[in-house]
């Protein structure tokens, strides 16, 4: 696993760097919920990106934990853990990496570090859901040794953070 990949808890300073990384290197749909309007990083989407994180991980009462993924002091993406209402002790994980940093092991390292943080937080089950065509996520999950559940619309898996090393 790459040793130069770190997760830093999101704060206002990192949020600005995260927005810059997203605008430079990712599609809005990869990194935030859909916002109506023309494609690309419109002013509305940039504001919505900031609002999204301020209302979740940076809220007075956070609804999830978000981390900036940092490689050699550069923010390259984000990883998050969102507690699941339907199952005590469970959280849903999400990760995105800027395009120019994909395919080099950053996503795999970030996911393993996120699982270690989940374990330290007392989370005993981490849920991951992606699309059937997202081969990179399927491979990340397979590398963790978990079973993938495939439906027409989604591929999902439960990961035990204590067993993920
Ligand atoms: C999914 C994502 C986080 C993976 O990050 P990454 O840094 O590219 O991941 P890695 O380099 O660690 O690669 C993980 C595995 O996927 C494979 N992979 C990476 N990009 C791939 C691609 N475009 N097509 C097929 N396989 C790919 C790698 O070869 C590796 O497999 P291996 O270990 O068996 O060789 C990144 O592609 C991304 O941000 N995608 C957009 C957002 C997204 O889909 N997030 C997931 C939501 S759950």
UniProtKB/TrEMBL annotation:
Domain of life where this protein originates: Bacteria
Keywords in alphabetical order: Transferase
SUPFAM superfamilies for this protein: Acyl-CoA N-acyltransferases (Nat)
Listed InterPro entries: Acyl_CoA_acyltransferase, GNAT_dom
Pfam families in alphabetical order: Acetyltransf_3 (PF13302)
An MF annotation (GO) of this entry: acyltransferase activity, transferring groups other than amino-acyl groups
Boundaries of every N-acetyltransferase domain copy: 5-162
Gene3D superfamilies: 3.40.630.30
Name of the protein described by the UniProt record: RimJ/RimL family protein N-acetyltransferase
Organism: Thermomonospora cellulosilytica
């Amino acid at each position: 696993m790459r040793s130069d990949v770190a997760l830093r808890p999101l704060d206002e300073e990192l949020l600005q760097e995260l927005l810059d990384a997203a605008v430079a290197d990712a599609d809005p749909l990869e990194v935030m919920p859909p916002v109506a309007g023309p494609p690309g990083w419109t002013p509305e989407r940039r504001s919505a990106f900031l609002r999204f994180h301020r209302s979740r991980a940076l809220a007075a009462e956070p609804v999830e934990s978000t981390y900036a993924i940092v490689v050699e002091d550069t923010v390259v993406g984000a990883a998050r853990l969102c507690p699941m209402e339907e199952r005590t002790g469970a959280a849903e994980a999400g990760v995105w990496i800027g395009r120019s940093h994909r395919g080099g092991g950053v996503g795999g390292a970030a996911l393993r570090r996120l699982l270690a943080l989940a374990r330290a937080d007392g989370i005993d089950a981490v849920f991951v859901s992606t699309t059937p065509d997202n081969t990179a996520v399927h491979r990340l999950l397979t590398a963790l040794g978990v079973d993938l559940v495939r439906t027409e619309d989604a591929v999902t898996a439960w990961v035990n953070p204590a067993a993920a090393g």
